[in-house]
Amino acid sequence: MNRNRLLSLPVLLAALAAPAMAAPSVADLAGYFQGTWDCSGHFASGKPIASTEQFRTILGGKWLLEVHTDKPPHHYDAYSIWGIDAQTHGFSTVIHDSFGGLRTFHVLFPDDGTIRLQRSTAHGGREAFVFAKHDPGTFRITYRHAKADGPLKTGDTLTCRKRSR
Predict the structure, then answer these.
(1) If we measure between CA atoms, which residue out of 88, 71, 82, 66 comes closest to residue 116?
(2) CA-CA distances (angstroms) from residue 164 to 7, 50, 54, 100?
(3) SS3 95
(4) Residue 56 above 90 pLDDT?
(5) How do residues 6-37 score in pLDDT, each as one tens digit?
(6) Which residues have a Cβ under 8 Å from the Cβ of 89 and sit 6 or more positions away?
(7) Considering the domain 3-162, what is its CATH architecture?
(8) Residue 36: closest CA among 61, 65, 63
(9) Cis omega before residue 24 (within 30°)?
(10) Separation of alpha carbons 19 and 38, rounded Å
(11) Extents of the domains making up the chain
(12) Residue 104 above 80 pLDDT?
């Protein structure tokens, strides 16, 4: 059996399980996220974490760039590019990180108003980022992961507040 089909099964099942609304445009997402956000939260262990998230459109507004920068003592930094693939017409996010990682996520827009970035890993596990908008100036990011056939577990959660201009 084709391994790539097996790896995409959890993403397909999750998409079928969560009713989805129509994907917003990149401009719609930029309308909410554009700017700089200060985030603080904790890992599942309770250890604190903080970051800065910056969002802006690039390449003629076709893509939304998110720049994630951990605040010391942590060192994870990432560039995420969100947008609609012209060939598949699917919304996706590609994350390039400071550890040399390159991950592609399918983006879902369930009826609960969240934005879910989901992917299956090469070893049968799963990863997800859930963005939950609270109000025009606050959103929460929750990172979840699972080993093959295991339940999704929260890795960390950040609450982000938009900086005044």
Answers:
(1) 82
(2) 42, 18, 13, 33
(3) strand
(4) yes
(5) 333 333 334 434 444 566 788 888 889 999 99
(6) none
(7) Beta Barrel (2.40)
(8) 65
(9) no
(10) 31
(11) 3-162
(12) yes
